[in-house]
Backbone:
């Protein structure tokens, strides 16, 4: 990069930095809402499109397949494009996706809309951390990252319950239409607030392959996939379980999902306070706790109170899981953080996709209980693979 470019970056940062960070925070919240709000609308969406709940759950999860590809390809295929416009393009794709889903006349159009969202999800997360590091001085990067990731519990707390309640009141299509003006405003905010971010270095696939050749990193990547796969195997089909087994109506369902989302703030606070230093001893905690939740629901899920407490535990650990595993990545792939970040995003999205697809078959072919047993099995495999965590650490 030339001295003139560096000077331009230095000049722009103090003016636009925090407005740009806030625009990315809103984008995170809208991305999470767009990706996971359909889970709270699974039943009415299936009815409206003339499909089974299992098929609709798989269609919702198709975004994961495209997110995998985007997370690996965006930094290479768009390697020389100004990062400001890449992020703006990802947000525009989110807007188009919402319009297609809201207006979907058929199952196939729903699939196309979710595929476009997947490209947005994978591309945004592959670039987000690197962009944040360019928006603020080095000393402010942790605070900026914390602010950006704060969009996750906000969306988790309000998207699912609001989607469930408004879907019952107005209809599931209206919920997606309601998101479109917010995403349009976020797109405008990106264009205004983000400074010019010329590409500094094109991502090399060789760095990713080099990381995969390291046994400790590959083992950790697989363990993280199992952990996320367990979590979202249960979460994707949570509404059918609560309706069929717990016997909730739309109002109580919204309350339970709100409790789950609000618990995420506790997980964010706790992980920020206690996840410090070497995290080996914490790596199996998410799978251990979250794998116990579907078993707890199978035993106690008929009680709304018991179900609510279990969901709050799941919600708190869900947000802590991201901090634990991303800290592990930062500590054990510090020589190739961009390559590691792309691989982690791809792995997480792959686990969400595979978990939802397999459990869609279990739901349609066997029962809702079978999907929760599958979630617990994935978590158990993660706990066994992690062990005491030492074999997932970079050799000293």
Residues:
């Amino acid at each position: 990069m030339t001295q003139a470019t560096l000077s331009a970056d230095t000049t722009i940062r103090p003016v636009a930095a925090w407005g740009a960070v806030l625009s990315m925070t809103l984008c995170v919240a809208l991305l999470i809402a767009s990706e996971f709000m359909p889970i709270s609308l699974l039943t009415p969406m299936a009815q409206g499109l003339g499909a089974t709940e299992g098929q609709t759950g798989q269609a919702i999860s198709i975004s994961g397949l495209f997110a995998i590809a985007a997370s690996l390809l965006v930094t290479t295929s768009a390697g020389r494009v100004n990062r400001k416009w890449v992020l703006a393009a990802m947000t525009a794709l989110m807007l188009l996706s919402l319009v297609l889903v809201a207006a979907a006349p058929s199952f196939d159009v729903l699939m196309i809309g979710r595929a476009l969202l997947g490209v947005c999800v994978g591309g945004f997360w592959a670039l987000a951390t690197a962009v944040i590091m360019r928006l603020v001085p080095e000393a402010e990067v942790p605070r900026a990252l914390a602010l950006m990731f704060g969009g996750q519990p906000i969306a988790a707390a309000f998207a699912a319950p609001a989607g469930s309640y408004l879907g019952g009141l107005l209809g599931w299509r209206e919920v997606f239409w309601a998101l479109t003006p917010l995403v349009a405003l976020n797109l405008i905010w990106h264009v205004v607030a983000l400074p010019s971010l010329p590409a500094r270095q094109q991502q090399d696939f060789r760095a990713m392959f080099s990381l995969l050749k390291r046994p400790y990193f590959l083992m950790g990547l697989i363990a993280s996939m199992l952990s996320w796969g367990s979590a979202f195997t249960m979460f994707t089909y949570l509404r059918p379980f609560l309706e069929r087994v717990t016997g909730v109506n739309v109002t109580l369902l919204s309350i339970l999902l709100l409790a789950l989302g609000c618990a995420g703030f506790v997980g964010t606070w706790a992980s920020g306070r206690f996840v410090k230093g070497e995290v080996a001893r914490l790596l199996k905690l998410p799978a251990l706790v979250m794998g116990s939740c579907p078993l707890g629901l199978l035993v106690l899920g008929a009680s709304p109170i018991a179900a609510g407490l279990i969901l709050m535990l799941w919600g708190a650990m869900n947000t802590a899981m991201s901090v634990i595993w991303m800290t592990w990545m930062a500590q054990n792939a510090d020589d190739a953080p961009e390559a590691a970040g792309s691989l982690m995003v791809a792995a997480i999205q792959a686990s969400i996709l595979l978990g939802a697809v397999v459990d869609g078959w279990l739901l349609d072919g066997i029962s809702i209980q079978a999907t929760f047993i599958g979630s617990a099995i994935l978590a158990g495999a993660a706990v066994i693979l992690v062990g005491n965590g030492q074999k997932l650490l970079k050799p000293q």
Summary: The chain has 16 helices and no strands. The radius of gyration is 20 Å. Residues 204-396 form a domain with the Growth Hormone; Chain: A; fold (CATH 1.20.1250.20).
